[in-house]
Amino acid sequence: SCLRLHLQLIKDVLNKQIDNQRKYNHKIWRDGPKDGINEYGFPPYIIAKQLIAVNNSPPALKNLYLLEFHPSLGLASLIPKALDHILQEFQQIYRPKTASDIINLEKRVLQLTLDEWMTLESPESFYGSQLQKDLFVDVLVEDPSLVREIAVSALKSITEEEQKQGKEKHVWFMNIFSRLLELLTLRHRLIEVAVESAQLGRLYKEFAGEMGFDEFHLYLRPVYFEFATHKEKADQLPPIFITALLEDDSGVDRYIPSSLVLSIQDIDNQIGKFSFRIRESILQLLLHSGVENLQTALACQVTQKNILLVAVQQAAFCHMMYPTQAGAMKERSQSMRSQSSSTSERSSTIGNEMESQLLATVPLTSYSVVRFSAGHWNLKRPPEAFISIQLEKQGPRDIMLNTFIQKKQILGSRMQNPDEVNKLKREVIAEYCHKVTHRMSQYSLRSQIIAYYNSIKGLLEDLPTVRDKYFIIGLPQEKKVGKEKLENDPRSFCPRPRCLLSADGRSFLNLWFIPHPSETLFMFKMLPEQAGCKALRLTLQIVAAFHDIVSYIFSFAQLGSAPGCFDYFCLEHLTADWGGTEQIGMELQELQKKIDNLHNPSDPNEVAQMLSLHRDILFLQFDAAVRHLVRKAFLSSGNVSAYQSVTDNIYHGLPPLSNSIVRSAFASQLLIPQLLDPYSHRTLMLFPWRTFLANGGPFPVTISNLNPINNNMQLCLSGLNDEDRRVAHGELIGVQSEMEDILLNNYAILDDHREWRTPFAKQSSGRFDEVSGKPSGALLELPHSVASCSLLKSYLILWKQLEVSKTEWGRLKLKVEDINTVHLYKQFSEVYNVEILYPAMRSVAIRMGLEDEFEGFVTTPQCTFPLKEVSEAELKTQQLRQLLESLEIHMIHNVQKKINKEMTLVISEKAREERNLPTELWKHRNMQENFSVPRPEIVESFIQRLLENHQKTDAEIIVGKDHLQRCLTALGCDIMARERSNFETYSMFYENILQQQQQLLYQKEQEMDATEDKTGNAELGLSQVAELTHEMIMEITALRARFTDLQRKDYSLKEQIRKEVQEDYGALVQSLFLMCLQLKGKLDEYRLSINQHMFEIISEVRRDGVDKMIDLKKKFGSTKDNSRLKEHLAQQGQLQKLRDENSSLGKLVCKLKTISCWKETVQKAKLSASLREMEKEAIQNKKECLKYKMMAEQEVVLFRQQLKAARKALAQSQAENKRLKQQLDKQEHLLQEAEHRMNQEVHRGQKLNQIKTENLGRMLEDLGERELRLQCLSAEAEKSSKRRQLQERKMKKEIHQVRTQLTQERSLKLDAFQRVDELQSQLYVMEAAAPQRNFSAGLTRRSANLSRSANSIKLSFPGSASWIQNTEISTFALSRDFKQHFLSTDSMHGMSSATEETQRPKTVPSGWRNRVVDALLPDLTENPHLVVPIQKKSQNCSPGQRRQ
């Protein structure tokens, strides 16, 4: 059912769009295509002849014409996005628990959307009739042809008024067209904003009614500038407590307009006066300040829309349950406060360093209102959330009017100019819009804060244990008791305040307090406007970042839930593998630790900065793990299905979790120009509207625009099973461990409070300082949390840049679209390790002086081990640098190939001898012919036909003879059709191939001709090129040798310096070593002496103790013997002697060790000195050997040069000899040719004389024949002239006959007119004399009949070729064409003279007579100069006409 509803909606929308596009196409092509330049850019012309279906299956859309194409149908992909957005909003409201609930909700949403579409109102129906005519009428503005005519007329009017030439004229033209486009854009935006304002106004009225307010709060009574008076208390603010209006609303105007108008029309009737209905009004807007006025009107309407949006948002986010009786509410609030105070005393501590009040608990009833019976509770919106738009706009409007009156008095006479008045009005209106927007921004901030807190409460409802243990839920209308600032006093317990910021907004107090919406509505209202706005902005920054962090933590904990479970936050569904509630608590504690470790934990700016950085780090960690590590793990292990599932899902789930640009759904054709950042201030100033559409999200005008983090994170891993989820969990934990390692490796840097703000990718040469001593522990209490967060964010951005560059590099290197198989991944890893990773590690090791260790650890490029001394960030930076260099080289190669190709085409075109345009430069690549023959189903169709009429038995099938013959005939026809189709296909295929090869051959021939032309010139310079090449090779060789020598000298100097330093400090080192040995000996002696002294003291104490024990025994009268004590004492004395002897021996051993170490050191020093001397001798020998080698090489080079010079001289002499021989041969050949030429000339002269004599005889004979022909032709010419004269005479006679006929016809017509006049005069006389009505009526009927007959006579003359039968006059009526072609000047004069002779008395008015004459003979006197022969026309006349 959901799919059916979805299909019906899409079908209706697209069918309506097709109808609209057809109407638009008909407007453009109403006169049909004319193939002119003015049609450039128009949509294709639709030939409405034959409707076709798009596919063979039953089409969902209506049938289209054959060449009908509508690009706007491509926007149909935005409809599912809009439906998903709506469904997501409803899911956040209803929060379904099962799959059936989600399906039912989706069905209801689709049904609701379909109903809304079916009953959709037209945009102009919201406003009055006059505004519909002025703004919404699209007859003129939506027609491109008419708009073009308006632009042309505007250009003509400007050129007539101001004579512009050259560049100024073009500037004026561009200005007119830009203003016209701006005018059309402003109209479109004004209509769009007006419709949105009308829809938001309906919601405002509904919410106002629910909160107990009337709809007149939406409207403001118009007060125009011309009728305004100065007000004293114009800057009076609306009441702080809006509920006071429920008791006394006398200060509110109860004005309600009869119809909805634009916001500018509430302010001024001149700026808001415009019309798009007629051309003159559009030209007025175009040529004068109409564009500026429309911009001002649009600014006012956008301000009105924003006010309505803010008011609706605040009302929608404060949806609460209120009791019907105030007493019950009071008692409940007191009980809740008592419960909260008692539970806060019983709160427990989280750790050794966390305060107990952080974990103060509030029972569930403090936030989540349980479902009570309808008799005690009812659903109602709090009136505190209401915003009176009238009161909010009234103060700034009065200030605007006062400002206008003051400036008008200051300007004085300048205000007599209407343009100056309109300019001043636009300025004060713009200031008014700015003030209203600034005032309403506070309400917008509060509504967003409430929305974020409501979302946090919704998350906490599913985990009550976490809520009760870590959060404090605010109560409605609670009183703040206690101090607002925390004091660190370990001797007393101080609970945290129940507020986020202090009352002045300057101190941060408690992040874990979730205030009630009623408290947020009055937050910072007592502060000044600027201070309150600043405090609200800080609160919103903190709450937004905190909401995203909490949502991420909760969503991460539920990633391990079962894929089919929809109630994720139940305790039994949170698996322990992903942390569960314990991990959530640890993350929240860690967040509080970071706040406590700030430089100033009470500064809200630092807290907001730290929370935003921490949020970015969490999202970047998840992005890096899922986008790169998880996919890499699946692909390397061969789990291609899991890899593909994650790849498909991240393209939908990860973009909402990043700061990527999300374009509006209504900005498909309004893009920002390239190389402009949508988030930059410059782009906002240049293109404000397009910037808003580019980064305002898919649907900017929405009530709730929170990011569904939970759904997007679930979507990324939705296609994985339990085992794959464990792999993904391991990679996510690995990213967190890597972040801890980064912090541990850079602990010393962070300890100095250095903030890392620049990304690692921009630090090309710097690297992290190495730290020898690293503190232990998994979690490190950082001295500066902002610095640590900045460090981690920079590292994650560097990581992301590296992975993106690596993927692109691998795709280009392997020449594939995507690396999505195990084989490709292994190949990519090997190539990457060889070409990028190994060189990057080597360069880092060389720069750090660890080349020897690197060579020891890394033996082959395929097997690399990271160095312990190199940080991961520096290694990634070096890899990124290597990748960027490789990609840059690839781009350079591509550009070079393109340039070479274009140069080749240019050269080939220049070499062509034809004088046509070089079209080859603009030709696209030839299409590659992919030949495939369709498989005809001949056998199947034959079998099917054959088995249609058959009789089947157990062992055989019987087919009739006739039926078999028909089947065979059809089979033959199919085979012939297949052969014909194959022949046509193959012939077309081979023709295309031959044509392509012919083009290639022609291009090759042109290139060969061009190269042959160049070879002649190139051969002359080959010797010079060879010499220059040889010289360059010699010079390069010398430079290389010099460079090698310098390198050797540098290396030798370094070695020498190192050895000199060793020699200089050798004695010092030996002395230090001896001192160390002496100190060590002394320490050993001191240790032994201390031991001996301690043993002596112990022995003395033992003896004293024994003596005292004996004395005590004697004192108490003990009878035991003391011999054991004495024996033990004697044994200890012997043991002490042995110890003394051992200590003396130990001293001797220490001395021996010292002497042996000293001897060993002395021997090493001697050996090192001798080794240095031997190395010096070896170096000296090498230098001498190299010197002798260089001398020998120089001698060899000199000998080669001499040999080359001798060979060159020999070649020159041989060439000179050869040239002289060729000259002699040429001279001999020329002499022979001259002799032969003389002989031929003599022979040729003799032949010419013979030919001349023969030609003279032939010429005489020809002359005689031509004279005879000339005489015959002259006789024929005389005969033809006589015939021509006879024909002219006949034509004159015929013309005379036609003239006589025309005069007779004219006389007959005039007689007919005279007869009609006489009859009419008789009729008038009879009417005047008749006294009776019947007789007069009969005469009237007769006169009507006569007039009809006269009219029929009048109408029958012009253009008719028949005779008038009523008057029995046979006249010939000539049409206009007949008279224009067959009347001459003489005939016209004859007719005019005849008319003058046959004039009749004027019995009727001359005007009527003239009209009759003009109707009968309209063109008789036209074209008097045309004299055309009428011989052919007279032949076509009837016999009666000839007789006349």
Shape assignment? extended
- By DSSP (H or I, 4+ residues per run), the number of helices equals 37
- Gyration radius, rounded: 54 Å
- The counted number of beta strands is 8
Q: Structural class of the secondary elements?
A: mainly alpha
Distance between the termini: 90 Å
Short summary:
With 1444 residues, the protein is mostly helical.
Q: How are the secondary structure elements laid out?
A:
Layout: H1 2-28, E1 51-52, E2 64-65, H2 78-94, H3 99-118, H4 129-136, H5 144-161, H6 167-210, H7 244-247, H8 279-287, H9 290-317, E3 320-323, H10 326-345, E4 377-380, H11 389-411, H12 418-461, H13 464-470, E5 472-473, E6 513-514, H14 517-521, H15 529-557, H16 580-596, H17 604-636, H18 640-653, H19 681-686, H20 688-695, H21 709-716, H22 722-745, H23 747-751, H24 785-814, H25 822-848, H26 851-857, H27 872-910, H28 938-946, E7 950-952, E8 957-959, H29 961-1020, H30 1022-1116, H31 1123-1329, H32 1333-1356, H33 1376-1382, H34 1385-1397, H35 1406-1416, H36 1431-1435, H37 1439-1443
Parallel strand pairs: 5-6
Antiparallel strand pairs: 1-2, 3-4, 7-8
